[in-house]
Design brief:
Keywords: Iron, Metal-binding, Oxidoreductase. This is Fe2OG dioxygenase domain-containing protein. Belongs to the iron/ascorbate-dependent oxidoreductase family. There is one protein chain. This protein has one domain: Jelly Rolls, CATH 2.60.120. 27% of the residues lie in helices and 19% in strands. It binds 2-oxoglutaric acid and fe (ii) ion (FE2). The site of fe (ii) ion (FE2) has 3 residues, from loops.
């Protein structure tokens, strides 16, 4: 089965009400996608391609600066949120068995007023990242509500554990990704743009400038995800799989290198939705398939794997 495409217009960001019938349809479609594939394209969410282009544009202008200019914004240099900031090329390995990923990232993980943001030529960076973060937050909460209904659960089971998105007590992060041109002579053995991994939190919203993402099917083969302008690609992440006792599936995905001689860059934006740090994630079917874990502890362990413990 390829990645389903679902029309979300009935519950898009501008809509106050959704009829029972519309909700029933969304529930059915999302459930099929998330139990069978783990990924879904949502069309007509209310987040427009213009909004996506605006945030991709200013992110690219940040990445194209010399490393010395980006250095002051390095991840781990912000006291109130260790995940906020710039991640340089080859620093992260999403598959720890491979060399560092050939990508750069900027994590908007904190909206705290003490955060120092790029300015000068990048005036608007803070406002653009922050407003996109908040739009993604609204859409995520809508998706989580539909997901809860699809499992016959009270929506509060998920929403009540995502009350602090946008504060430093919640790990939700808007991540701009930039994949620079690849020099095939310098590539290390086994190196990719983004190694095979599944995401850590509850769900991820993904916006891509071009193709390149591959998603693993149940059969084990990887299929190419198309790039559908205006659509948001949403996937189940590991904590949601655990929370739902494997009813919803969090699947491996990756970004391969471009073919030799193809010097095109690639950009994407990922909104990693994470439950509140103190939220205790317990199998919602009452089973004990996985022991309870707090979302913050779980996230820290996963970061230790992808960045190394130091
Ligand atoms: O760049 C992409 O399309 C995917 C990135 C990704 O999967 C991630 O950062 O978790
Ligand atoms: Fe991912």
């Amino acid at each position: 089965m390829s990645i389903p495409v679902v029309d979300f217009s009935a519950y898009s960001l501008s809509k106050e009400d959704v009829t029972d019938e519309q909700m029933r349809n969304l529930i059915k479609e999302l459930k099929t996608a998330f139990t069978e594939v783990g990924f879904v394209f949502l069309e007509n969410t209310g987040i427009t391609q213009e909004e996506v282009d605006r945030v991709m544009d200013i992110s690219k202008r940040f990445f194209l600066q010399p490393d010395e200019v980006k250095q002051p914004f390095t991840r781990k240099s912000f006291a109130n949120n260790p995940n906020h900031g710039w991640v340089s090329l080859e620093t992260e390995r999403l598959n720890p068995r491979r060399p560092g990923d050939l990508k750069e990232a900027f994590n908007t993980a904190s909206l705290h007023p003490d955060i120092k943001w790029p300015s000068g030529a990048l005036t608007g960076f803070q406002e653009i990242q922050t407003s996109f973060f908040l739009r993604c937050k609204e859409l995520s909460l809508r998706v989580l509500r539909v997901v809860a209904h699809s499992l016959g659960l009270d929506p509060e089971v998920f929403l009540g554990a995502h009350r602090l998105i946008g504060t430093d007590q919640n790990g939700t992060t808007l991540r701009s990704l930039y994949y620079p041109p690849v020099n095939s002579e310098k590539v290390k053995e086994g190196q990719l743009r983004c190694g095979e991994h599944s995401d850590y939190g509850s769900i991820t919203l993904l916006f891509q400038s071009s193709e390149g993402l591959q998603v693993r099917r149940r059969s084990g083969e990887f299929i190419c995800a198309p790039s559908i302008p205006g659509a948001v690609l949403i996937n189940v992440a590991d904590l949601l799989q655990r929370w739902t006792s494997d009813q919803l599936v969090s699947v491996l995905h990756r970004v391969l290198l471009p073919p030799a001689g193809d010097s095109r860059t690639r950009q994407s934006m990922a909104f990693f939705v994470q439950p509140d740090d103190e939220a205790l994630i317990t199998c919602c079917d009452g089973s004990n398939k996985y022991p309870p874990v707090t979302a913050g502890t779980y996230l820290t362990e996963r970061f230790n794997d992808s960045y190394g413990k130091n």
